[in-house]
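Possible regression after last week's pipeline update?

I re-ran a chain I had predicted before the update to compare outputs. Posting the input and the new output here so someone can diff against the archived version. Not blocking, just want to make sure nothing changed silently.
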Amino acid sequence: MRMDRDRADGPVVSGMSAAGFRVDDNIYRALAITPLRADAWSPPPIEALDEAALTLVLALDPPPEFVLLGTGAALVRPPAALVRALEVRRIGIEAMDSRAAARAWGMLRGEGRWIAGALYPIEA
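New output (post-update):
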């Protein structure tokens, strides 16, 4: 799927497929993305997701408003302990399937929102 829209500042997810997420000239099977950069991500199983696994996106300065969590082909709720840990840091978390998260990334960044994203692979 190709995604066309006005370019926001920073990395933009321009397409996605079973192979991964296209950002500029790179394909990322799993993606950690901030307004400043896009990186390959090696996520743990969703039930083991914790703050340490989100280091790439939580290091953003200033901290993101929230983390957009793409949970793969289907929506999976993040672990309650992770949600609580982020709440303590005053960072929200919005979970959705990874395709929806990639589309939301572009829309929210187009609005200038200071967010971070962690997207699991679309297919296992």
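Follow-up from reviewer: compared with the archived run. The chain has a mean pLDDT of 93. Marking as no regression found.
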